[in-house]
Amino acid sequence: MEKYFIKTFGCQMNVYDSHRVAGLLEKRGLSAAERIEDADLVIFNTCHIREKAAEKLFSDLGRVILIKQERAAQGKDTVIGVMGCVVQAEDEQIFKRSAAVDFALGTLTYHRLPQILDDLAQKKAEMVIDTEFPAESKFDYLGENTSQGACSFIAIQEGCNNFCTYCVVPYTRGVETSRPVEDVVREARKLVSEGTLEINLLGQNVNSYHGEDALGKERNLAYLINKISEIDGLKRLRYTTSYPADVNDELIDCHKNVPILMPYLHLPVQSGSDRILKAMNRRHTAGEYLEVIAKLREANPALRFASDFIVGFPDESDEDFQATLDLADKVKFITAFSFKYSPRPGTPAAEYEHQVPEKIKKERLAVLQDKLFGYQLNFNKEMVGKIVPVLFEGDGRHKGQLTGRTPYMQNLYAEAGDECRGKIVNVKIETATMNSLSGTIAGD
Ligand code: 5AD
Ligand code: SF4
């Protein structure tokens, strides 16, 4: 095997996992293929959060089977693997739905990929599936992480104990586990030494992080943020995704006292109705959510918020939905991800009575998005004329153009030379749309 191709669906945790798997493969001497057709090993890293996300996998698998057949006609073998949350949820059904799959790896066992590739090569197995929730941590086996460029992710926490009634995560990622403080700090130092300027600490429930320090004492996210912020050369720090009821005062203080902590926080609320929040098994009311936001704003007035919403949760009435719209008006989120409720097999809410008809879900989503997109566009427009530090990462749409991100995670395009790549450069914002900004380099 010489070339691999990984296609990633879903969240940033999956992006991180794919990067770690690529690291394992590169250690074995494989390199990334530009096109799927050139790959001896194709891996789909999958998402199961909503029905649509899972269905995408099966349509992609259909296409890759044809590629496998074409390559076979040219005498080339193709190994196809599936990893991630769909595997954890579907288990052996994966092979039933697609016979072309050679191996399937769950979310907590992908460090075993090298062994599985060896077994397949030696024909010790025809198909391999591993969906265990092992006692050992994959991080002890993955080796050192490598830089993902100017912006890097570090998974610090995985799994969730909240069991929101609509959500598959506790089943696909297991119970909460946190990586030790020292491991995370070492990974952060290494990434910064390789050119990373921005680190995003990842976890499904990142603010309930409780990793052990060198003396075996449990430490929280605020402690970790303070430690990482001491790393020389690190310019920006973020964490995603937080659970509102677990935002404690120490974490709020970080937004006041840690200058490199960016003024943007993704804090999913899901609904503005207390009745629905209760049915969702969220451990907070709308009022408590707004209190957390108020405290964070007091700690750092520049802070702006992003959120996730679900519309059409079972039994959601017009009044419940109105409460969601009201909450959106109160916070004026600068970005928001909103979804129609999707019943997930095995989750409690999928069995609830009074499922909301698709037509109503669709209507509510359109109304909510209209509002949310309006706030997003307004915020972007407010930036016009301002000078903003932008971390440039990749190529823009045209030659001579680079893309980067503002402190508020906005995408920005600017005419910029290669010397700006991987650097933070001041940019004067010229235009704004809902999804991006453009500007010109403003120098110091
Ligand atoms: N239906 C719709 N949206 C969902 N999410 C999670 N589970 C479901 C579901 N069953 C959304 C939540 C969560 C985001 C990652 O996906 O808003 O915060
Ligand atoms: Fe899912 Fe709720 Fe856990 Fe978020 S907090 S991962 S929505 S169970």
Number of domains: 4
Q: Classify the secondary structure makeup into a structural class.
A: alpha/beta
The tally of beta strands, per DSSP, is 19
The low-confidence parts are none
Percent of residues in helical segments? 25-40%
| Named CATH topology of the largest domain | Rossmann fold
Can you describe this structure?
Helix content is 34%, strand content 22%. It has 444 residues and is α/β, with parallel strands linked by helices. It folds into 4 domains: 3-130, Rossmann fold; 144-262, Transcription Regulator spoIIAA, CATH 3.30.750; 265-272 and 287-377, Transcription Regulator spoIIAA (2-Layer Sandwich), CATH 3.30.750.200; 387-441, OB fold (Dihydrolipoamide Acetyltransferase, E2P) (Beta Barrel), CATH 2.40.50. It has a 6-stranded parallel sheet, sandwiched between helices. Strand 15 (387-395) and strand 16 (401-405) form a beta hairpin. It is globular. The mean pLDDT is 93. The structure holds 5'-deoxyadenosine and iron/sulfur cluster.
Give the SSE map.
Layout: E1 3-8, H1 12-27, E2 31-32, E3 41-46, H2 51-73, E4 79-84, H3 85-90, H4 93-97, E5 103-105, H5 113-121, E6 128-130, E7 151-155, E8 157-158, H6 169-172, E9 177-178, H7 181-193, E10 198-202, H8 221-229, E11 236-240, H9 249-257, E12 264-266, H10 274-279, H11 286-299, E13 304-311, H12 318-331, E14 335-340, H13 358-382, E15 387-395, E16 401-405, E17 411-415, E18 424-432, E19 436-441
Parallel strand pairs: 1-2, 1-3, 3-4, 4-5, 5-6, 7-10, 10-11, 12-13, 13-14, 17-19
Antiparallel strand pairs: 8-9, 15-16, 15-18, 16-17, 18-19
Helix pairs in contact: 8-9, 12-13
Bound molecules: 5'-deoxyadenosine and iron/sulfur cluster.
The site of 5'-deoxyadenosine (5AD) has 12 residues, from β13.
